[in-house]
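Team,

Forwarding the record for the chain on the shared tracking sheet. I've put the sequence and predicted structure together so nobody has to dig through attachments.
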Amino acid sequence: MRRGRLAILAGGLAALPATAGAQTLIWSDEFDGARLDPAKWTASQDCWGGGNDERQCYVDDAQALRVADGMLRITARRRAVTGRAKPLGDPSPERVSRRYASGRVQTRGLASFRYGRIAVRARLPAGQGLWPAIWMLPEHDNYGPYPRSGEIDIAEAVNLGVRCPGCRDRVQGAVHHGPSLAANRMWNGSARLAPVDGFHVFALDWTPERMTWSLDGKPYFSQPARKPFDQRFHLILNLAVGGRWPEITGRKGVDDKALPATLEVDWVRVYDRP
């Protein structure tokens, strides 16, 4: 979700390992209740923008986060909000105002994982300036602060459904890490998302040797699981509005006509591997 300076496509389809072996479900959320499960998720409440110049404030209310009918719905709206300028944990009292509100949930402090299969069935929203993401950050910065301890993007996309020269409806998987923000690097691969308005299963198979990303059961990118990806990471689901990546691609900027827009999550399942 946070961007690096250098994009490198590593690994090809011919090199992708097939998933195999017995899998045991060790953690899941089917969103069968009437509210977000506080034993599994916490909701962000800040206007930080993730270090990407995003335009939203994350809020914890029914307009942004709703669990009903077996689904988690994260909705972005054109809505004036004032909140913390820095994420939770930063002592700064600074407050800022934004004209968009959305939702972000995470399992930090509640559930974290090292190796296994992480799979999410979701429908990503379409629209210029929208940036849905299913990703992971380290539970503990054992190799140092970001980006030294890494980032794993299970699935993210921008500007889906936008028609313009060079526009492509693709989902991306990636890892980020580096010795400093200025030297933060990204290794990524992508797959065509079709249909854009349908539900898809986005998955990461993660072993001590390799990390393999798949879309609807079809692998499309693989990367060696070298350090710092030998530690525990927690899950994050969010829908950002704007930011450097979506606003400089597609038709540029943010199209308010695409709002409100919703990231719908049917389930999240984590499997152990022998």
